Amino acid sequence: MKDWINSMPDCLAITMHGSIAVLTLNRPEKRNALSDELVLGLQKFFDNLPTEVRAVVMQGQGGNFCAGLDLNELQETNITQSFQTSKIGQRLNDTIQFSRVPVISVLQGAVIGGGLELAASTHVRVAEPSAYYALPEGTRGIFLGSGGSVRLPRIIGASAVIEMMLTGRVLEAKEAHDRMRLTHYLVQEGQGLEKALTLAEKITNNAPLANFAVIQAIPRIAEQDPAAGMFTEMLMVGIAQDDEEAKRRLADFLLRKQGKVSKT
Hints:
single chain, alpha/beta, 2-enoyl-CoA Hydratase, Chain A, domain 1, Lyase 2-enoyl-coa Hydratase, Chain  A, domain 2, 2 domains, six-stranded mixed sheet, three-stranded mixed sheet, 47% helix, 14% strand, globular
C-alpha cells in the first residue's frame, strides 16, 4: 500500500481512512486544472487500486475541485493529435465510471469543463454551496473531449448541455442540485468530505460483489434495448446471489440479524 501511494506524482495526494482512499487533486495554484501529469497520475491511481481499497473519495485541494483542462498545455495540434488527446481523457473517465470500487466526488469551487466531465464519471456527487459549474468550451472554440458529451446529457439533459456550451452560463450549486439534479447531495460549506466519508463507510459495508455489479451493470443496462437489459439483469442476479458474502447476508436478514430498511 505504501509503495502504491509513494509511486503517485506530487499533483496527487492520497490518504487512507480504513478501506477508503481519499484522493486529492493537488494543484491548488492552478485550481487543480488537468495537466498531462495529473491526467496520467489519475489513470495510474485507478489502474492500480490495491485490493484493500473498497471505495474512493475524490476531492480538490485549495477550495476548488477542478477548473478543467490546463489551457497552458493546450497547443495547436492536427486532427490525429486531437483524437489522441481526447482518447486519453475518455479512457480516464471510463476507467473511473467502470472502476472496481465506487467513487464519490466532493465538489467545491470551480467544477468547469474537463473538471465537470471528471465529476460526471463518479458514482456519487456531494456538493458544497461554493461549487459552480460551467462548460465554456463553445466560447473558447473547443469541444468536450473526455466523454462529457455522452455522460452529461444523460444526467442533466442534452438541452441544458447545449445551452451551457453555447452561452458559457455558470450554474450555481443550488440550481445545479435542485433543478438540474447534477449532484446527489448538497451539504453545508466545509462538510463535503465528512459527508462523502460517511457515505463511503456505508457503501463499503455492502457486499463487494454487489457494489461491483451495480457500478458495472446499471450504466450498461441503461444503454441496452429492454430485452437485452432484462437478460443482463438476470445474469447479474445470478452472479450477485451466488457470492458467498451475499448468501450470508441474506441468511442473516432472514434470521433478523440485519435490520429492515428505514429512514434513519
